[in-house]
Amino acid sequence: MRIPHALTLVACLTSSTFANAEANATLTKSLHAALSRGPDAVAALAKPRLRIDGITFASDACTSRFGFAPELTKEDLPALLVCLKPLHLVAAGDTLIADPGFVVWPFFEDGKLIGMSGSRYIREDYAAPNLVATANIAPDPDTRAAVASSKVPILAVDIEVCLGADGRVETARVERFNVREASAWADQIIAATNDAPYKPFVLDGTKIRACARQVHVYPAARREAVIAELERRNNAVRMAPALPETVASHMLEGHRIAGEKVIRPDDDTKGKMIASGKDKIIGSIKLCIDTSGTVNRLSILRTTGFEPYDTKLIREMRKWKYTPYLVNGTAAPVCIAVTFIYEIRVQ
User: Fold this and answer.
1) pTM (whole model) above 0.85
2) How far apart are CA 129 and CA 109, in angstroms?
3) Residues 5, 9, 14, 18, Cα dihedral to 10°
4) What are the structural domains of the chain?
5) What is the rounded CA–CA span in Å between residue 345 and residue 183?
6) Is the bond into 70 cis (omega within 30 degrees of 0)?
7) HEC secondary structure over 225-264
8) Burial class (CB within 10 angstroms; exposed 0-12, middle 13-18, buried 19+) of 110
9) Which residues of 193-231 are buried (b: 16+ CB within 10 A; e: fewer)?
10) To the nearest whole number, what is the mean pLDDT of the chain?
């Protein structure tokens, strides 16, 4: 049975929201141009220290160095730009969109860049032209009757849709809904989404794979107001991001539902370990999950001393999947430190 996460909906949007979005879009365009000109151009737009958080880089080395909330100085900018280049960032409003279709949010304060944070989702207003196929699905008569007799006059279902480069749905799943009466409607939306035709996402003239969130609201007339409020709240969260809580590893182990727990080195690395004369190899990696239980950050706390093994640990841990970690009944992001001990036994 699906347990709904809290999704409180209030219709409100101020004119300052649009003003900030326009200002940030201008700054983002300037940042995009500076990224191509080099570290000095970026430094001119940035505060002395930058916070980089949650960006998915193309290489494990870049993810290890910049993937988990490091505070950077201008001396780090040349290496950061090298890591950002393969993402082929394109400015879209107040965000930067990367190939293969995730978002990098730049944060500004007093007109200066203070940090960047990654998100796996294309933002709602950019995604909307691609996701119109299922935007107006009405609940079935039984659900509408339940809403009529409910104290909650609005149904809201938030889904994740991932499309291939051809526009076909690869995955569609419910992220959350606001009241239990929306459960049947959520299943109806997912079924329709899997059968619906979509437009492919296009990045700088190239069709790419991408994921997006889509909010369904009943009555439909309230949809724009509800989305505006959710966007306002999301902006508030992004501008003051909270670090995930770090807990003991055993507190999260019972939540793991996918991925191999035992990760062994390949034969070549195993041979080098034996040749090193060590009888035990120890490494530690920090792993963080988001509110859906998806691994979104990995960083090496203690290297094993063998880069191929470090790389394999990061690669395989990305496949781990968890049920949401609950704090007072609400899904919350959380981090753990995972220690790997590989004992070498020579026959």
Assistant:
1) no
2) 31
3) 50
4) 1-241 (no CATH), 245-343 (3.30.2420.10)
5) 53
6) no
7) HHHHHHHHHHHHHHHCCCCCEECCCHHHHCCEEECCCCCC
8) exposed
9) beebebebbebeeebbbbbbbbbbbbeeebbebbbbbbb
10) 77
